[in-house]
C-alpha cells in the first residue's frame, strides 16, 4: 500500500488471505515517495516466488500501475477512499491504464480490499484444487448467512 494510512482498510485483505491459509506479505511502498524502492521490490517479486501483487493507493493513485509496469505478475489495484474526492480520484487513476499494461481494479475501499484478496485466491486456485474447494466453502457459508438473516 502507498501509505500506512491505508492499513486500516488493507488489513482486511490480509485477514482474508490468512483465513484461506495463503502466505503473503504487507509493505508500505509509494509510487511517489519511494519510487526506486517500489520498482526494486516489484521487479524482484517473481524471483522471490510471488504470484500476485495487490497494490492499494489513494488520491493520485499510481502505485498499481507502476507495479504493473515492473512485473508480468497479475497486479490487482485497490483504490483507497480519499478525503477530497471520496476515492473517485483513486479509482480513476488506478483503473485507467493504457492498453498493454493491465491492472485488475477492484472497488473503492474495504469491499475492494476484501475482493482483491478473494480474486488473488481465485487466481492461485487455478493450480491449487484445495484452495478452490475453500472458495466454494466460503461462498456456501456466505449464502447460508444471507439466507438465515432475520429482520426486526
Ligand atoms: C497515497 O496517498 C496513499 O496510498 C494514501 O492513500 C494517500 C495519502 O497518504 P498519506 O498522506 O496519508 O500518507 O499515496
Characterize this entry briefly.
49% of the residues lie in helices and 9% in strands.
Characterization of the model:
- This protein has 152 residues and is mainly α.
- It has 6 helices and 3 strands; from the N terminus they run H-H-E-H-E-H-E-H-H.
- Strands 1-2-3 form a 3-stranded parallel sheet, with helices on both faces.
- Helix 3 (63-69) links the parallel strand 1 (53-58) and strand 2 (75-80).
- It is globular and about 50 Å long.
- The mean pLDDT is 98.
- Bound molecules: 5-O-phosphono-beta-D-ribofuranose.
- Residues 1-3, 5-6, 30, 57-59, 80 line the site of 5-O-phosphono-beta-D-ribofuranose.
Distinct small-molecule ligands in the complex? 5-O-phosphono-beta-D-ribofuranose
Please report the number of helical segments: 6
Shape: globular
Number of strands: 3
Helix content: 40-55%
Low-confidence stretches: none
- For the biggest β-sheet, the strand order reads 1-2-3
What is the end-to-end distance? 40 Å
How are helices and strands ordered from N to C? HHEHEHEHH
- CA-based gyration radius: 16 Å
The overall pLDDT average reads 98
Secondary-structure content class: mainly alpha
Q: How many strands, which pairing sense, and closed or not: the largest β-sheet?
A: 3 strands, parallel
Strand content: 5-15%
